[in-house]
Each structure stands twice: as C-alpha cells, then as structure tokens.
Design a protein that fits this description.
Elements: E1 10-22, E2 25-29, E3 37-40, E4 51-62, E5 65-69, E6 73-77, E7 81-85
Antiparallel strand pairs: 1-2, 1-4, 1-7, 2-3, 4-5, 5-6
Length: 86
C-alpha cells in the first residue's frame, strides 16, 4: 500500500495554475496526471505559475497510483499526495 494512504483518506496535491479560462475558472497542471483540469476560482485572483492545493478523498489505490475524487476522478502517483485527514 502506498505510504499508508487508504481508501477514504482525505489527501492534498499541489497543482500549478496554467491560465485563466473564464472569469471564475482556471486551468491547472496536476503532477503525473497528464490531462487538462480546471477548477473554480471565484474568490481569489491567482496568477499563472502560482501553486494551488487541491484536496479530495481517495477512491482507489493501485500499485503506487492513487485515484482522488476532485469532482472527477484524478489518478496520480502516490508520492505526489499527502494525507490531510486519515
């Protein structure tokens, strides 16, 4: 099992802002994910290159990869996430 992470744990991953898509959404790059992802950003005005922390619950673990529910399932390497709440 990956670093003590279990299904149901709340984990965080640090993504990097790529660009603003609309007034209330930004595109982010999630390490080891490999697909575009956008998040709602209504309250702050983040800038390109700024790190943002995304949190979600672990839904699946498989051979060093972890699937996190960020509104949609996102699968990343387990060494890129940290446990927030077990």
């Amino acid at each position: 099992m990956a670093r003590g992470i279990k299904v149901g744990d709340e984990v965080a991953i640090t993504a990097t802002v790529r660009r603003r898509v609309t007034e209330d959404r930004v595109s982010v790059s999630i390490p080891t994910y490999g697909f575009p992802h956008s998040i709602v950003d209504r309250t702050s005005k983040v800038k390109r290159g700024q790190p943002v922390e995304l949190t979600g619950d672990v839904t699946h673990i498989d051979e060093g990869r972890v699937t996190i529910d960020l509104g949609v399932p996102v699968t990343v390497n387990a060494d890129r996430v940290r446990v927030v709440t077990a």
